[in-house]
Design a protein that fits this description.
Helix content: 25-40%
Distance between the termini: 42 Å
Number of helices: 12
Number of strands: 10
Number of domains: 1
Strand order of the largest sheet: 1-4-5-6-7-8-9-10
Order of helices and strands: HEEEHEHEHEHEHHHEHEHHEH
Radius of gyration: 21 Å
CATH class: Alpha Beta
Shape: globular
CATH architecture: Alpha-Beta Barrel
CATH topology: TIM Barrel
Bound molecules: ligand PBG
Strand content: 15-25%
């Protein structure tokens, strides 16, 4: 179109978006491989990988395949993995005794990974939900309706110590019991594990976005619902101040890294935390966030790679230093 019309502007921000080269110069945020943590599901036995229907490309792996997956991730430049076990239902009970069995699936996995890949960072969950017959993250009182705080923390301390002994770099309490970070720090220090860090799930919300994960680890099958009500310990999605309080408490109790979970729907919480704390901030892009993007892409409604990359960029821009994401391997490949 030909026209002589011209605005008299001092600022024309589009100048800096004109070419790829200029856009690169003014880039403010980028995802790097250094930011990625891959969550992995491990199962007992030596069977084939089991696909998780609502999480395309993600499978439960036996120990041997788990090591292969770790090797691939490591060679792609992903430097950390977070392990989640699918525990055989016959090993679950009300008191989660298998959680502290010295030869359990997670501990065996940690030892095997550390033997094969000593430099891969291994993070383990400290929570009882894969081990309880009711699917809660803690033990229950006699009525079966109250998740007990202090007795749960006692078990978590034992769990964390065994994970430290097996060689993990970071233990990650994801249970939301009060006081667990301080208690775990104390017991780790007393036992000589001063260099085992704590990545605290500090602002963990009672979210519907955990559905696919609960199927993957089998806590949904144990509880006979994907929507097990964890509102007496996980945060209310409506509460921003309470999330700040939880983060402050975990920092005061000795956490090394603070986490916000889920990530995408909670970008304001990530930013609040980034501004309030000088500790590193982790964000967990959870199973439901991953499933959402994949489902829309399968329908042809979203571009998988572009929406994946944008979702991670937004989490980084909000202030996360590291991101747990089921996209870790694909993104690392794309960044190669
Ligand atoms: C519980 C735990 C959960 C996740 C990791 N550890 C959720 C829950 O059942 O409350 C969710 C991760 C995901 O959805 O990807 N200890």
């Amino acid at each position: 179109m030909e026209t002589d019309f011209k605005l008299n502007l001092t600022q024309r921000p589009r100048r800096l978006r004109r070419t790829e080269g200029i856009r690169k110069l003014v880039l403010e945020t980028a995802i790097s491989k250094n930011d990625l943590i891959a969550p992995l599901f491990v199962k007992g036995g030596d069977g084939q990988p089991e696909a998780i229907e609502s999480m395309p490309s993600i499978s439960r792996l036996n120990l041997e395949d788990l090591i292969k997956e770790c090797e691939e991730l490591f060679s792609l430049g992903v430097s950390a993995v977070a392990l989640f076990p699918q525990v055989d239902p016959s090993l679950k009970n009300d008191d989660a005794t298998y959680a502290t069995n010295g030869d359990n699936l997670v501990l065996r996995s940690v030892r095997a990974i550390k033997k094969a890949l000593p430099d891969l960072i291994v993070i383990t969950d400290v929570a009882l939900d894969p081990y309880t017959s009711h699917g809660h993250d803690g033990v229950l009182d006699k009525t079966g309706s109250v998740v007990l705080n202090d007795p749960t923390v006692q078990i978590l301390c034992d769990m964390a110590c065994q994970q430290a002994e097996a060689g993990v770099d970071l233990v990650a309490p994801s249970d939301m019991m009060d006081g667990r970070v301080g208690a775990i720090r104390e017991v780790l220090d007393e036992s000589g594990y001063i260099n085992t860090g704590i990545m605290a799930y500090s602002a963990k919300f009672a979210s519907a976005f955990y559905g696919p994960f609960r199927e993957a680890v089998g806590s949904a099958q144990a509880a006979r619902t994907k929507l097990l009500d964890k509102r007496t310990y996980q945060l209310n999605p409506a509460n921003r101040n309470e999330a700040a309080l939880e983060c402050r408490l975990d920092a005061d109790e000795g956490a090394d890294i603070l986490m916000v979970k889920p990530a995408g729907p909670y970008l304001d919480i990530i930013r609040d935390l980034r501004n309030a704390s000088d500790l590193p901030v982790a964000a967990y892009q959870v199973s439901g966030e991953y499933a959402q993007i994949h489902a829309a892409a399968q329908l042809g409604w979203l571009d998988l790679e572009k929406s994946r990359d944008e979702s991670l960029l937004a989490i980084k821009r909000a202030g996360a230093d590291m991101i747990l994401t089921y996209f870790a391997k694909e993104v690392a490949k794309a960044l190669f």
